[in-house]
Design brief:
There is one protein chain. The chain is mainly α and about 140 residues long. Among the domains are: about 40 residues; about 35 residues, no CATH class. It is about 40% helix and about 0% strand. The chain has four helices and no strands. α3 packs across α4. The protein is elongated and about 95 Å long. It starts with 20 loop residues before the first helix and ends in a 37-residue tail after the last helix.
């Protein structure tokens, strides 16, 4: 029995994605019209469209914040409709609501600290580090009764 050797020219990896039927049909038609294999069509699509897509998303605030992440307890009132708006937007663009929220916060804050800026204090909460900490108030000794 004869076995085929894998192509040595390129290391091909496959990923399974769930594509909407109209997108699937459009990709097939465009690929055939251009006379490309699926692999070459995918490579060309990423090569020609990914940079502008990343630039556009970065301009909207997606992926602009970096550094260590900590939990933040944020208030949301039903009457504001914030959570519903985030859910609807998330469903519409298929980007997680938390990512959309972080982008909104970054845009509203005028972009967080530039990348690479060290956090202040021991836990990054803006408190002075121990060496920079002022002496502070001392407790009065308790009076004897």
């Amino acid at each position: 029995m004869r076995t085929k050797k894998p192509s040595t020219a390129t290391n091909i990896k496959f990923r399974v994605l769930r594509l909407a039927e109209p997108l699937r049909d459009a990709v097939k038609k465009a690929r055939l019209d251009q006379g490309l294999t699926t692999r070459h069509f995918v490579a060309e699509a990423v090569k020609s469209h990914l940079p502008s897509l990343v630039d556009g998303l970065s301009a909207l605030g997606l992926g602009t914040t970096s550094g260590p992440k900590r939990p933040a307890r944020l208030p949301f009132a039903d009457e504001d409709g914030t959570l519903d708006a985030l859910r609807k937007a998330s469903e519409a663009v298929r980007i997680p609501a938390t990512q959309l929220l972080c982008s909104c916060l970054a845009a509203a804050a005028g972009q967080a600290a530039p990348t690479g800026t060290p956090a202040k204090g021991k836990r990054g909460r803006g408190r002075p580090a121990a060496a920079d900490k002022p002496a502070g108030r001392r407790r009065k000794p308790k009076a004897d009764k």
